[in-house]
Write a structure and sequence with these properties.
Layout lengths: L5 H22 L1 H15 L4 H15 L6 H4 E5 L6 E5 L7 H17 L7 H10 L13 H7 L11 H15 L7 H16 L10 H7 L10 H8 L2 H7 L1 H18 L2
Antiparallel strand pairs: 1-2
Helix pairs in contact: 1-8, 3-5, 8-9, 10-13, 11-13
Amino acid sequence: MAGKTKSQTKLYAELLSLALKAQASKSFDTRKAFNDEKVWVLTKGHLKNEFRDELDKIRKRLSIPLLNPKDDWVTISSPTGESEMDESSWLYGHNDKFINEFESAVTDVLRKYKLPNNLREWIELQLLYRDIAKTYPIHYFDLAFDLLTTPEWINTTTLTTTEKRFVQKLIPEILGFKKRPPKKLAEQYKKIRELLDQSKNGQRRMRTLKTAKKTINIGNRHKLTYDEVVARAFSEDDEFRIGGEKLKARLRKQKQRLLQRHK
Protein backbone atom coordinates (compact mmCIF):
# COMPACT_ATOMS: atom_id res chain seq x y z
CA MET A 1 0.00 0.00 0.00
CA ALA A 2 1.27 3.47 -0.79
CA GLY A 3 1.09 4.62 2.79
CA LYS A 4 3.86 6.19 4.82
CA THR A 5 4.67 6.30 8.49
CA LYS A 6 4.50 9.36 10.65
CA SER A 7 8.22 9.13 11.44
CA GLN A 8 9.11 9.14 7.73
CA THR A 9 6.84 12.08 7.06
CA LYS A 10 8.49 13.97 9.89
CA LEU A 11 11.78 14.02 7.99
CA TYR A 12 10.54 16.57 5.52
CA ALA A 13 7.21 17.88 6.84
CA GLU A 14 8.72 21.08 8.18
CA LEU A 15 10.56 21.68 4.92
CA LEU A 16 7.39 21.26 2.94
CA SER A 17 5.03 23.32 5.04
CA LEU A 18 6.18 26.84 4.22
CA ALA A 19 7.03 26.09 0.60
CA LEU A 20 3.76 24.32 -0.12
CA LYS A 21 1.63 27.04 1.44
CA ALA A 22 3.36 29.61 -0.72
CA GLN A 23 3.27 27.66 -3.97
CA ALA A 24 0.29 25.29 -3.85
CA SER A 25 -2.38 27.60 -5.21
CA LYS A 26 -0.15 28.96 -7.98
CA SER A 27 2.55 26.49 -8.98
CA PHE A 28 0.65 23.20 -9.00
CA ASP A 29 -2.54 24.17 -10.79
CA THR A 30 -1.48 22.11 -13.81
CA ARG A 31 -1.38 18.86 -11.80
CA LYS A 32 -4.77 19.68 -10.30
CA ALA A 33 -6.22 20.19 -13.78
CA PHE A 34 -4.66 16.92 -15.03
CA ASN A 35 -6.02 14.91 -12.10
CA ASP A 36 -9.48 16.46 -12.36
CA GLU A 37 -9.56 15.55 -16.05
CA LYS A 38 -8.23 12.00 -15.59
CA VAL A 39 -10.62 11.15 -12.76
CA TRP A 40 -13.63 12.52 -14.66
CA VAL A 41 -12.79 10.57 -17.84
CA LEU A 42 -12.41 7.30 -15.86
CA THR A 43 -15.43 7.68 -13.60
CA LYS A 44 -17.96 9.69 -15.62
CA GLY A 45 -16.55 10.05 -19.12
CA HIS A 46 -16.17 7.77 -22.13
CA LEU A 47 -13.76 5.34 -20.38
CA LYS A 48 -15.84 4.70 -17.26
CA ASN A 49 -17.12 1.27 -18.36
CA GLU A 50 -13.69 0.13 -19.53
CA PHE A 51 -12.08 1.34 -16.30
CA ARG A 52 -14.70 -0.40 -14.15
CA ASP A 53 -14.17 -3.66 -16.06
CA GLU A 54 -10.39 -3.35 -15.67
CA LEU A 55 -10.71 -3.13 -11.90
CA ASP A 56 -13.20 -6.02 -11.84
CA LYS A 57 -10.69 -8.24 -13.69
CA ILE A 58 -8.02 -7.50 -11.10
CA ARG A 59 -10.41 -8.21 -8.21
CA LYS A 60 -11.33 -11.53 -9.77
CA ARG A 61 -7.72 -12.49 -10.50
CA LEU A 62 -6.59 -11.65 -6.97
CA SER A 63 -9.79 -12.97 -5.33
CA ILE A 64 -10.44 -9.70 -3.53
CA PRO A 65 -13.61 -10.14 -1.44
CA LEU A 66 -16.23 -7.50 -0.76
CA LEU A 67 -14.56 -5.60 2.07
CA ASN A 68 -16.01 -3.05 4.46
CA PRO A 69 -13.56 -0.16 4.92
CA LYS A 70 -14.92 0.56 8.40
CA ASP A 71 -13.73 -2.88 9.51
CA ASP A 72 -10.78 -3.43 7.18
CA TRP A 73 -8.97 -0.07 7.05
CA VAL A 74 -7.00 0.14 10.29
CA THR A 75 -4.10 2.01 11.86
CA ILE A 76 -1.24 -0.25 12.90
CA SER A 77 1.66 0.80 15.12
CA SER A 78 5.23 -0.37 14.60
CA PRO A 79 6.72 -2.76 17.19
CA THR A 80 8.55 0.18 18.79
CA GLY A 81 5.47 2.37 18.82
CA GLU A 82 7.35 5.18 17.11
CA SER A 83 5.32 5.15 13.92
CA GLU A 84 1.90 4.27 12.57
CA MET A 85 0.55 3.26 9.18
CA ASP A 86 -2.97 3.15 7.77
CA GLU A 87 -3.52 -0.03 5.79
CA SER A 88 -5.90 -2.79 4.78
CA SER A 89 -5.84 -5.57 7.37
CA TRP A 90 -7.03 -8.01 4.68
CA LEU A 91 -4.27 -7.10 2.25
CA TYR A 92 -1.48 -7.10 4.81
CA GLY A 93 -2.68 -10.40 6.19
CA HIS A 94 -1.19 -11.91 3.02
CA ASN A 95 2.44 -12.71 2.34
CA ASP A 96 4.88 -10.36 0.61
CA LYS A 97 4.48 -12.12 -2.72
CA PHE A 98 0.75 -11.39 -2.82
CA ILE A 99 1.21 -7.80 -1.66
CA ASN A 100 3.79 -7.25 -4.42
CA GLU A 101 1.36 -8.74 -6.95
CA PHE A 102 -1.35 -6.36 -5.76
CA GLU A 103 0.96 -3.35 -6.01
CA SER A 104 2.13 -4.46 -9.49
CA ALA A 105 -1.50 -4.63 -10.62
CA VAL A 106 -2.03 -1.07 -9.38
CA THR A 107 1.10 0.05 -11.23
CA ASP A 108 -0.24 -1.55 -14.42
CA VAL A 109 -3.47 0.43 -14.09
CA LEU A 110 -1.53 3.66 -13.57
CA ARG A 111 0.55 2.99 -16.67
CA LYS A 112 -2.37 1.90 -18.83
CA TYR A 113 -4.37 5.05 -18.14
CA LYS A 114 -1.32 7.34 -17.82
CA LEU A 115 -2.17 8.28 -14.26
CA PRO A 116 0.27 10.03 -11.91
CA ASN A 117 1.59 8.06 -8.98
CA ASN A 118 -0.21 10.29 -6.49
CA LEU A 119 -3.44 8.53 -7.59
CA ARG A 120 -2.02 5.15 -6.50
CA GLU A 121 -3.95 5.00 -3.25
CA TRP A 122 -7.09 6.20 -5.05
CA ILE A 123 -6.83 3.08 -7.26
CA GLU A 124 -5.98 0.82 -4.32
CA LEU A 125 -9.01 1.91 -2.33
CA GLN A 126 -11.32 1.30 -5.28
CA LEU A 127 -9.90 -2.19 -5.78
CA LEU A 128 -10.36 -3.02 -2.11
CA TYR A 129 -13.69 -1.34 -1.36
CA ARG A 130 -15.41 -0.93 -4.76
CA ASP A 131 -16.31 2.68 -4.04
CA ILE A 132 -15.09 5.61 -6.10
CA ALA A 133 -13.57 8.01 -3.61
CA LYS A 134 -15.22 11.42 -3.67
CA THR A 135 -11.88 13.07 -2.98
CA TYR A 136 -8.51 12.40 -4.56
CA PRO A 137 -5.07 14.05 -4.59
CA ILE A 138 -4.91 17.17 -6.72
CA HIS A 139 -1.25 17.94 -6.07
CA TYR A 140 1.76 15.65 -6.07
CA PHE A 141 3.21 16.71 -2.72
CA ASP A 142 4.54 13.18 -2.09
CA LEU A 143 6.84 13.31 -5.11
CA ALA A 144 10.01 13.79 -3.05
CA PHE A 145 9.02 10.92 -0.73
CA ASP A 146 8.30 8.60 -3.67
CA LEU A 147 11.60 9.43 -5.35
CA LEU A 148 13.48 8.48 -2.21
CA THR A 149 11.55 5.36 -1.19
CA THR A 150 9.95 3.86 -4.31
CA PRO A 151 11.66 5.48 -7.33
CA GLU A 152 10.48 2.69 -9.66
CA TRP A 153 6.92 3.98 -9.30
CA ILE A 154 7.88 7.37 -10.73
CA ASN A 155 8.15 5.75 -14.16
CA THR A 156 4.34 5.77 -14.28
CA THR A 157 4.19 9.56 -14.01
CA THR A 158 4.91 12.32 -16.50
CA LEU A 159 5.96 15.18 -14.26
CA THR A 160 5.30 18.82 -14.92
CA THR A 161 8.17 21.31 -15.17
CA THR A 162 7.09 22.97 -11.92
CA GLU A 163 7.07 19.66 -10.05
CA LYS A 164 10.55 18.76 -11.28
CA ARG A 165 11.99 22.14 -10.36
CA PHE A 166 10.38 22.01 -6.94
CA VAL A 167 11.63 18.55 -6.06
CA GLN A 168 15.13 19.30 -7.38
CA LYS A 169 15.37 21.99 -4.72
CA LEU A 170 13.75 19.87 -2.02
CA ILE A 171 15.66 16.57 -2.34
CA PRO A 172 19.08 17.97 -1.32
CA GLU A 173 17.50 19.53 1.79
CA ILE A 174 15.90 16.22 2.74
CA LEU A 175 19.15 14.30 2.19
CA GLY A 176 21.13 16.91 4.10
CA PHE A 177 23.46 18.55 1.61
CA LYS A 178 23.52 21.86 -0.24
CA LYS A 179 25.46 21.71 -3.51
CA ARG A 180 27.09 18.33 -4.05
CA PRO A 181 25.96 15.06 -2.44
CA PRO A 182 28.42 13.12 -0.26
CA LYS A 183 29.83 9.90 -1.74
CA LYS A 184 27.38 7.68 0.13
CA LEU A 185 24.44 9.54 -1.46
CA ALA A 186 25.95 10.26 -4.89
CA GLU A 187 24.55 7.18 -6.64
CA GLN A 188 21.06 7.59 -5.18
CA TYR A 189 20.98 11.26 -6.09
CA LYS A 190 22.21 10.50 -9.62
CA LYS A 191 19.36 8.03 -10.18
CA ILE A 192 16.83 10.56 -8.90
CA ARG A 193 18.12 13.19 -11.31
CA GLU A 194 17.97 10.68 -14.17
CA LEU A 195 14.35 9.83 -13.37
CA LEU A 196 13.46 13.51 -13.35
CA ASP A 197 15.24 14.10 -16.66
CA GLN A 198 13.51 11.11 -18.28
CA SER A 199 10.04 12.27 -17.29
CA LYS A 200 8.66 14.32 -20.18
CA ASN A 201 5.21 15.82 -20.04
CA GLY A 202 4.05 16.68 -23.54
CA GLN A 203 0.47 17.41 -22.61
CA ARG A 204 -1.01 20.74 -21.61
CA ARG A 205 -4.07 21.10 -19.46
CA MET A 206 -7.32 21.30 -21.40
CA ARG A 207 -8.74 24.75 -20.76
CA THR A 208 -12.00 23.86 -22.51
CA LEU A 209 -12.65 20.74 -20.41
CA LYS A 210 -15.80 22.14 -18.82
CA THR A 211 -17.62 22.53 -22.13
CA ALA A 212 -15.95 19.48 -23.71
CA LYS A 213 -17.46 17.29 -20.98
CA LYS A 214 -20.94 18.28 -22.10
CA THR A 215 -20.28 16.90 -25.59
CA ILE A 216 -19.52 13.33 -24.46
CA ASN A 217 -23.21 12.42 -24.14
CA ILE A 218 -24.14 13.68 -27.60
CA GLY A 219 -25.60 10.80 -29.55
CA ASN A 220 -25.54 8.47 -26.56
CA ARG A 221 -28.43 7.34 -24.40
CA HIS A 222 -29.15 10.93 -23.36
CA LYS A 223 -29.79 11.77 -27.03
CA LEU A 224 -28.42 15.27 -26.66
CA THR A 225 -27.91 17.39 -29.74
CA TYR A 226 -25.27 20.05 -30.35
CA ASP A 227 -28.03 22.66 -30.30
CA GLU A 228 -28.95 21.58 -26.76
CA VAL A 229 -25.32 21.59 -25.65
CA VAL A 230 -24.77 25.05 -27.12
CA ALA A 231 -27.76 26.26 -25.11
CA ARG A 232 -26.35 24.69 -21.94
CA ALA A 233 -22.70 25.59 -22.41
CA PHE A 234 -22.91 29.14 -23.73
CA SER A 235 -24.86 32.25 -22.88
CA GLU A 236 -27.41 33.81 -25.21
CA ASP A 237 -24.98 36.69 -25.70
CA ASP A 238 -22.28 34.28 -26.92
CA GLU A 239 -24.68 32.60 -29.31
CA PHE A 240 -25.82 35.95 -30.68
CA ARG A 241 -22.30 37.41 -30.95
CA ILE A 242 -20.45 34.32 -32.26
CA GLY A 243 -23.22 32.39 -33.96
CA GLY A 244 -24.74 29.01 -33.18
CA GLU A 245 -23.00 27.14 -36.02
CA LYS A 246 -19.57 28.39 -34.98
CA LEU A 247 -20.24 27.34 -31.40
CA LYS A 248 -21.33 23.88 -32.54
CA ALA A 249 -18.13 23.56 -34.61
CA ARG A 250 -16.13 24.59 -31.56
CA LEU A 251 -17.82 21.91 -29.46
CA ARG A 252 -17.16 19.24 -32.08
CA LYS A 253 -13.46 20.07 -31.97
CA GLN A 254 -13.45 20.02 -28.19
CA LYS A 255 -15.06 16.57 -28.13
CA GLN A 256 -12.57 15.25 -30.68
CA ARG A 257 -9.67 16.69 -28.68
CA LEU A 258 -10.92 15.13 -25.44
CA LEU A 259 -11.36 11.70 -27.04
CA GLN A 260 -7.90 11.89 -28.62
CA ARG A 261 -6.29 12.76 -25.28
CA HIS A 262 -7.84 9.69 -23.62
CA LYS A 263 -8.01 6.87 -26.14
